[in-house]
């Protein structure tokens, strides 16, 4: 398992980790603001068992994540715990915490196929 080489690679592959059955009643939007070299803005919309990912900011998202690309790569590759990243200030999460918690159901951590 080699992991993701870039944030873009992760978001491009995100649909392959999505569990539609766990999102049948979901209606949430997320903005991932990944800063620094290799970063970018990604909007993720989950509604009634479907998910779309677009490479753009979403000021109206239910939940907004802001994190440096170097830290996010560690999180998505299992080398840093997301909760610890928040607690240590490496990742900021604003907005609907219920939406943030629900994401773990339809995009479970550790489901990387890399």
Model description:
27% of the residues lie in helices and 29% in strands. The protein has 114 residues and is of the alpha+beta class. The relative contact order is 0.24. It has one domain (7-106): SCP2 sterol-binding domain (Nonspecific Lipid-transfer Protein, Chain A), CATH 3.30.1050.10.
Q: CATH homologous superfamily - what is it?
A: SCP2 sterol-binding domain
User: How many domain modules?
Assistant: 1
SS element count, helices: 4
Binned, the helix content reads 25-40%
Instruction: Note the overall shape.
Output: globular
Oligomer: single chain
How big is the Rg? 13 Å
Quick check: average pLDDT?
92
N- to C-terminal distance: 5 Å
Strand order of the largest sheet: 3-2-1-4-5
CATH architecture type: 2-Layer Sandwich
User: Per DSSP, what share of the residues sits in E-state strands of 2 or more residues?
Assistant: 25-35%
Pattern of helices and strands? HEEEEHHEH
Q: Structural class of the secondary elements?
A: alpha+beta
**Can you tell me the CATH topology?**
Nonspecific Lipid-transfer Protein, Chain A
List low-confidence stretches: none
Characterize the main sheet.
5 strands, mixed
Name of the level-1 CATH class = Alpha Beta
């Amino acid at each position: 398992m080699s992991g993701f080489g870039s944030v873009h690679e992760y978001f491009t592959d995100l649909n392959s980790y999505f569990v539609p059955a766990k999102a049948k009643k979901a209606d949430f939007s997320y903005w991932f603001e990944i800063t620094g070299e290799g970063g970018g803005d990604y909007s993720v919309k989950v509604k009634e068992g479907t998910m779309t990912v677009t490479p753009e900011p979403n000021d109206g998202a239910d939940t907004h994540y802001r994190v440096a690309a170097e830290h996010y790569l560690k999180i998505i590759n299992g080398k840093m715990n997301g909760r610890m990243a928040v607690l240590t200030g490496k990742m900021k999460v604003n907005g609907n915490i219920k939406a943030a918690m629900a994401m773990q159901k339809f995009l479970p951590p550790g489901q990387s196929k890399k």
